[in-house]
Design goal:
With 419 residues, the protein is α/β, with parallel strands linked by helices. The protein has 15 helices and 18 strands. The chain has a domain of 194 residues: Dihydrodipicolinate Reductase, domain 2.
């Protein structure tokens, strides 16, 4: 028996709740908590009477330390699942430490206010030392390692698909397919069509900040940073077809470079259509992607947050999105002294996801691994005090669960390489 507190009630959280309720042998009780309790109640109402899992709901502001601690202490969960925004990672980790409970999330920390002078000073120092300028990185959460170790608690960082499953794929390749890995290319293809001129498949604020930032990759022991969207490749994805993809900075590169140090190069590519890129560039040019607050008619607003309010809610895209995703990793390296290539990936159908849990595949491919990562912690299959990313655990039980819970993986032992 186990009890999980799920913080968040957006599109990904909806998938997490559905999958936890399908896995009621592990998730015997869950509490869904968010600033907007009505969204939690709506999720719970969808599933009550259809699952053995006992569901409760609560209202909480995850940035309110005292209120969050009060909720954790009253509910007494075995695990806090942070399915909210990455802005809230550190606040929730602090509450978990104070209350003596394990923690997990789906994306690494980034600040909401990138103009905060104290944060800015640390950020600019990191840019000079590390060589990449993305606002998000693991250093803030890795700094909690000793605190979680001393408390005997586990924090699992980034248990979505990318990050998350992609790192499990890397650990699996390292364990079973290679003696040494030379290069890793992570490919994220969304072949879905939602019919809107412009919309994002997950939180617009996080998505647009990520893809408009400079790209970077790891090569020969250091970061190489490039202008945003300046490296483009084409790739023919199984069940999706030929797509343009662009090199982005992505958080799992940072942890993989640390945990698989023999790798000479790690890159991350994501597909985008021309319409998306044109809309994004226009919005950037007129200042709508800015995170700096401005005054408008006597009120302070953040342009990108205002834009988020105008765009379709990703949680509503499920019924109208058709097509498939294909996300995976291509490796080169050596096995038994011989050169080897290997590609492991998942193909997911948007409409199949919608018919199962009411979401599109982007939320599904994040929410299912979040549930699996949580189950790894709750069952003790992944259990060591400290702060870790997914590739630092045994990949085998996680890989088995992917096949069981809706994200089966495929292998190609002679893949076409990116370049």
């Amino acid at each position: 028996m186990s009890r999980a507190l799920i913080i968040g009630a957006g599109g990904v959280a909806g998938v997490v709740v559905h999958k936890c309720c399908q896995n009621s042998d592990v998730f015997t009780e869950i509490c869904i908590a968010s600033r907007t309790k009505s969204r939690c109640d709506a999720l719970a109402d969808q599933l009550r009477g259809k699952t053995k899992t006992v569901i409760t709901t609560a209202q909480v502001d995850a940035m309110d330390f005292d209120a969050l601690c009060a909720l954790i202490r009253s509910y007494n969960p075995d695990l806090v699942m942070n399915i909210a925004l990455p802005y809230q990672d550190l606040a929730i980790m602090d509450a978990c430490l104070a209350c003596g409970v394990n923690y997990m999330d789906t994306a690494n920390y980034e600040p909401e206010d990138t103009d905060d002078p104290e944060w800015r000073a640390i950020y600019e120092k990191r840019c000079k030392e590390e060589g990449f300028s993305a606002y998000f990185d693991y250093s803030w959460q890795w700094a909690y390692m000793d605190k979680f170790k001393e408390a005997g608690l586990t924090a699992l960082l980034g248990s979505g698909f990318d990050p998350g499953v992609t790192q499990v794929f890397c650990a699996y390749a390292k364990k079973h397919q290679f003696d040494t890995i030379d290069t890793i290319d992570i490919l994220d293809c969304n072949g879905g069509d939602h019919g809107y001129p412009f919309a994002t498949n997950f939180n617009p604020e996080i998505n647009l900040r990520e893809v408009s930032a400079p790209g970077s990759y790891w090569e020969n022991g250091h970061w190489v940073e490039i202008p945003a969207m300046s490296i483009k490749r084409e790739y023919n994805f199984k069940d999706v077809g030929q797509k343009d993809m662009y090199l982005l900075h992505h958080e799992e590169i940072e942890s993989l470079a640390k945990n698989i140090p023999e790798v000479s190069r790690i890159r991350f590519f994501m597909t985008f259509g021309q319409s998306y890129l044109t809309h994004m560039k226009c919005l950037e040019n007129v200042g709508m992607l800015s995170t700096t607050p401005i005054m408008f008619e006597g009120k302070e607003i953040v342009p990108i947050q205002f834009l988020k309010a105008l765009l379709p809610d990703p949680a509503t895209l499920g019924p109208r999105t058709v097509g498939k995703t294909n996300i995976g990793c291509i490796f080169t390296g050596k096995k038994d002294g011989k050169e080897k290539t290997y590609y492991v990936y998942n193909v997911c159908d948007h409409q199949e996801c919608y018919h199962e849990v009411g979401s599109q595949a982007i939320s599904y491919t994040t929410g299912v691994p979040a549930m699996i990562g949580a189950s790894m912690l709750l069952t003790g299959k992944w259990n060591k005090p400290g702060v870790y990313t997914a590739e630092e655990f045994d990949p085998d039980p996680f890989m088995e669960e992917l096949n069981k819970w809706g994200l089966p993986w495929q292998e190609d032992f002679n893949p076409v390489l990116v370049d």
